[in-house]
Amino acid sequence: MKRRNFLQSVPITLGGMSLSAYANSPLLSDLACTLMDTDKVLVIIQLNGGNDGLNTVIPLDQYAVLSQPNIRQNILIPENKVLKLPGTNNALGFHPSLSGIHNLYKENKVAIVQNVGYPQFSYSHFRAADIWVSGADYNEVLNSGWAARYLASEFPNYPSGFPNMSFPDPLAVRVGGTITLGLQNQGVSMGIAINNAKDPLNLSGNLFTDPPTPGCLGKELSYTREVLRQTDKFGDAVQAAGDKGRNLSSLYPVANTPGAILGSQLALVAKLIDGGCKTRIYWLSTGGFDTHSSQVESADHTAGVHSGLLKGVSDAIAAFMDDLTLLGRADRVIGMTFSEFGRRIISNASGGTDHGAAQPVLIFGSNVIPGIYGHNPVIDPLSNVNSNLPMEFDFRSVYATILADWFCVGSADRDNILLNKYQNIGFLKPNNCLMTGVKSNQRYAGAKLIEAYPNPCADQVRIAFESEGGMVIIELLNQEGRLVQTVFNGYLESGHFDIACSMQKIPEGTYYLRIQNSVSEQVRKLIKARL
Predict the structure, then answer these.
(1) Is residue 15 pLDDT above 60, yes or no?
(2) Entry pTM
(3) CA gap 133, 142 in Å, rounded
(4) Cβ atoms within 10 Å, residue 434
(5) Read out DSSP for 431-451?
(6) Which of 16, 83, 99, 158 is deepest in the core (most CB within 10 A)?
(7) Backbone angles phi, psi at 172, to 5 degrees
(8) Which residues, 6+ apart, have CB-to-CB distance to 433 below 8 Å?
């Protein structure tokens, strides 16, 4: 193998930390990059395994149904233990282990996007995760992540000529793992990976602490390390930020407590931000959310595996936000949590939950427009083992909102990055983005957007809906959240519309009509019956 090809295939290890910068073109090309005028940071926290959204953000107005023996009685959180969310008329609350995030919500630093997913979802951990991080449709496989495509659109010459005087820092940092699809663009990593958050400062100079093996292999290893020292040009910048940065919060989880690892990773992120690192995206992950059994303790549903996982995430995020506030850096940072899927409505006999569909996504930071986006899911008392929460928001609409209102990406570039048009949900303060042409979006609330009649229906149903103007998509979903048919997809002027939809070939049962228009989405139940 040629040395150049060999080096491209080897992760760069710096003092116990793996810095992987994969490049398919020369690093020393003297090409300039064009920077967008922003120093804003996005922190992505991936909850690996599939988080149970119904026990995370609990729809208390559905509690009577959820508490039935055939639904969730064996894992449901006691109603008097749920942390109720202000402004929801006691209709929604957090798991009691989310006290840190609950406090942030009360401080107007959290937005909750309800029922996030995509049509025709996957139950596979690997495929579902790929869909979420790539922004793909269910039936397409992409060789790039949505975040990587964003970075590539801003820095088209990367990695040639990077780092440089204008941007000496890595574009993205993966903390606690290797660079995966989310930060890859057609095989080129758009960032570096730091594996050992406990040793953030040994990044340059003495890169390798273990001596090479004696003999021929040792000589080759010594040569490889020397070249890696010369070519890893991000090490000095990250080292400098680590040396300069501080942690001021005393709230980070300590060793051997829930959230200790995630907390140490977020502490590293805070230190790099405080130290002047201009990295745009930090990507972290924490696992264990595949709770098929023993999700709760049988004698105390507020305790157990899921409780510990949520407490770890909550305490780590709360400490991170406290740190950023004390450091005076909070205005620069927003974060989001997501999992590859939610869980089924009905719990199983093992005291756990199985792979599901839609889930809540949490957005945190001082620049969010706090509150609830979307509606509490309506739980059918006749739900079966295949029943899932219907999707209300496409997950790519979350990305579209961040791109538009945080990173100031224009509409044409957003469409190219996300490979289609998606709505702006409106959970970020629009005045954070000063780019010309970025439209300020307000949260839509209090209006009925779609209605079906007659309901129940037989062979045909009429659908009345309101359009604010622009792209309108109306879809019919089954109880599993799968797309049955697209009722309408096109551009309309603002106004009231009424269309007919044939139900002749649709089996009897319960369905959901979903409308997406501008910043608004809504779901309505539709029953097909023999009348």
Answers:
(1) no
(2) 0.74
(3) 10
(4) 9
(5) GG---TTPPP-----S---EE
(6) 158
(7) -145, 155
(8) 404, 405, 406, 408
